[in-house]
Specification:
heterotrimer, A alpha+beta (about 110), B mainly alpha (about 120), C mainly alpha (about 110), B: about 120 residues, mainly alpha, c-terminal domain of poly(a) binding protein, 6 helices, globular, C: about 110 residues
């Protein structure tokens, strides 16, 4: 694929990145840097730790995650995030919305009705 | 008697005195700016002035931090202190001011980091 | 309770400032500029103090991992700030809402 085609996804990713982070946390308890790495590996190269930090902050404030501080080998303790019940419900809602939008946009592209 | 002296709620008076004590510690040009900001914010006050307290608090914090940093007052409030005050309170032009502050932030960061590297 | 309490609640604030000063120079610069921006924009959340202390914690982690500050948060620092306070109303919003409410009431 042409590289230029997938650059600058910031605008398009807005609103879905939070869902992606919920999904990653939903699989196993994890921390900010690991989440960023996962998103980068997935191909979202522009996502920096700061972006993930602001998302985690919102998830925490909205009561969707359980946060545990654990000591790390280097530097200050790390915050680990796991989904709680509200978080799992939010994640299900995200996938439902995603499927809805995706199906319709695909239809549009295929020219169907 | 000016507008601010009409604020009489006792907790507000106390908060008000604390503001003025902090303002006393500012350099002269900063204190002059503080006085102007207060004047230009007064039209945005509710009956008691309570709604302005957090806004004034933020403005004073900004002045304190910038003064400690050795910035010129011009860099902090610009040449349109009426517009600046309106933007703090959410009056006319607040949105375009926020854009200006946004650009200012990125510009300052770029300039200072460059100086650090050089 | 206001930002004043964070600034004047001296011991806590001084401890906070000391933590900022312990950060690498590039982090300190960006922290100061962010704080200045937030003081102007005036998010209601700023007064509970956790926004700034949380930010310092995040910066400490990044610095400990040996990253540069822009590597950590990206070059568009303003966009990072706006994400930081995305859900938070500002005092300017509060004022606007009260004006709209009043004018709405007056029209009826």
């Amino acid at each position: 694929m042409e590289k230029g085609a997938v650059e600058d996804l910031t605008e398009l990713l807005k609103g879905t990145l939070e869902g992606c982070v919920l999904e990653i946390i939903g699989r196993e308890e994890t921390y900010g840097y690991a989440i960023t790495r996962r998103l980068n590996e997935l191909g979202f190269a522009d996502v920096v730790e700061g972006t993930v930090y602001t998302i985690l902050l919102r998830l925490e404030r909205n009561g969707l995650v359980q946060v545990t501080k654990r000591p790390s080998e280097q530097g200050p303790p790390r915050k680990f995030y796991a989904l709680n019940d509200a978080g799992r419900a939010e994640l299900a809602t995200f996938w439902a919305k995603w499927t809805y939008v995706k199906t319709r946009i695909d239809k549009l592209k295929e020219g169907g009705r | 008697m000016n507008f601010w002296e009409t604020i009489t709620g006792s907790d507000l008076t106390r908060e008000w005195k604390a503001f003025e004590a902090r303002a006393e510690a500012l350099p002269n040009d900063y204190r002059a700016a503080w006085d102007e900001i207060k004047t230009h914010l007064s039209p945005y006050s509710d009956f008691t002035g309570r709604n302005l307290m957090p806004i004034l608090d933020g403005a004073l914090g900004l002045l304190e931090e910038s003064a400690a940093d050795g910035q010129s007052i011009y860099h902090v409030v610009g040449d349109d202190i009426v517009g600046f005050s309106a933007a703090l309170a959410g009056g006319v032009g607040a949105r375009s001011y926020r854009d200006k502050w946004r650009e200012q932030l990125n510009r300052n960061v770029a300039r200072k980091l460059e100086r650090l590297g050089g | 309770m206001g930002i004043q309490d964070i600034i004047e609640g001296k011991r806590q604030w001084r401890a906070h400032v000391a933590r900022v000063k312990a950060l690498p120079p590039d982090y300190q610069i960006v922290y100061q500029e962010i704080q200045r921006y937030l003081f102007k924009v005036g998010p209601v959340d700023l007064v509970d103090g956790t926004l700034l202390s949380g930010l310092v914690e995040f910066f400490e982690e990044g610095a400990a991992a040996g990253k540069g500050v822009l590597q950590l948060i990206g070059t568009d620092v303003a966009a990072f700030c706006d994400d930081l306070i995305k859900d938070s109303r500002t005092y300017a919003d509060v004022y606007q809402e009260s004006v709209e409410r009043n004018s709405g009431a007056a029209e009826k």
